[in-house]
Amino acid sequence: MAKMTKSQMLATLAEDTELSKKDVTSVLDKLTELAYSEVKKSGEFTVPGIGKLVKVHRKARQGRNPATGETIQIPAKTVVKFRVAKAAKDAVL
Fold this sequence. Notes:
This protein is α+β, with helices and mostly antiparallel strands. The protein has helices at 6-17, 21-42, 86-92; strands at 44-47, 51-58, 61-64, 71-74, 77-84. 44% of the residues lie in helices and 30% in strands.
């Protein structure tokens, strides 16, 4: 399988855990909500064995419009990055 869709993932998890798709969907939705709120509040959220979401502040910088070549100012902003856990890296190599 090249790329697993959300519905395929839910079906696989439901089958493997013997839970209903509705229950699995609810758990994943709650996990997502928890991740968003924790990153917003504390700046990071860790999923053991997979990785962590980290809030990072990017400084303002100059960029270039690829269509016109014009130099533009890109404002500072806060972004979320995902850092893969060592266990996950080791598991796929």
